[in-house]
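User: For my dataset I need records formatted as: sequence, then structure tokens, nothing else. Please produce one.
Assistant:
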Amino acid sequence: MSNVVLQGLGQGFMSTLFPAVVVIVMTMLTWGFEGSSGLAILAASSVSGTGFQGGIASFGAIATNAHKIVHLTTCPYSKSCLLVPQTIV
């Protein structure tokens, strides 16, 4: 059991390796080109992207919940079953 947990943890670390390296390289390049004002622009762009990512992540849960509500409240047979009760054969 602990082997599976450690494999999952290692895979999670490997999946964040590339984005972490990109962020480090971009921070170093920004500091080299623009100095501290460039880092301020980089920080502002990172913060503005966080709201977008949060909105996209929450949309999946909202869409799934709406789908379940529609699925539970609609008639699976036909539209006329809302008016006339039908029995399952």
